[in-house]
Amino acid sequence: MPPVHRRLHINLDTTANLAPFLEPLVPGVSPAVSAWLKGLKEVELHLDRWAFDLSDEGFWWRPKEGLNPIGGLVRHITGSSLRLLSYAFPQELPDWAKKGREWELQGEPEAKEVVEARFREAWARLLSAFQSLREEELGQEVPVGTQGLKAPRAHILHHLVEHAQHHAGQIIYARKLLG
C-alpha cells in the first residue's frame, strides 16, 4: 500500500483529526443541513487556527492599504452571517451587526477579544438555528433585504455558509502573507 494510503487510513481511524466534511452526518437533520453545519464548523476551525492566535497588531494588519485586515474579515463573517440568518429566520440583530459591511471591513480596529467573543456568540446562535431546521422549512420563500425580493430559505442558508467559507479562505491567505 502506498504511504499516502497508509496516512489516510490512520487519519480515518481517529475522528479527532478529521476535517468536518469527513465526519458522519449530524443526527436529526437532513443531509443538506448536516453539510451546512460541517461547513460552519470548518469556518470556526479555520478562524481558530489562522486568526484568533494573532496579536492585536497582526489581527488588524493590512497586506496593502485599502485591503481588508484579518480582524475586519472576521467581523464581516460574523455580521453578514447574522444578517443572512435574520433573513432566513426573522430576528433582532445586535447593534454592531446593523453597522454593515463597510464598518466591518474598513472600520476602526477593536480589541481582538471583543471580535472573537462576538464571533463565538454568533456561531452558537447559527449552529442552534441550523440544528433546529425542519425539512419543510427549507423550501419556504422568505423576504431578503429591503428591496422586497424573495428567495428559498435553503438558498439563503447555503449562501451564508459559502460566504463565510469564502472569507475564511481570505483569512488563511492573509495570515500566510503575514508570516
TrEMBL record:
<protein>
    <recommendedName>
        <fullName>DinB-like domain-containing protein</fullName>
    </recommendedName>
</protein>
<dbReference type="Pfam" id="PF12867">
    <property type="entry name" value="DinB_2"/>
</dbReference>
<dbReference type="InterPro" id="IPR034660">
    <property type="entry name" value="DinB/YfiT-like"/>
</dbReference>
<feature type="domain" description="DinB-like">
    <location>
        <begin position="51"/>
        <end position="171"/>
    </location>
</feature>
<dbReference type="InterPro" id="IPR024775">
    <property type="entry name" value="DinB-like"/>
</dbReference>
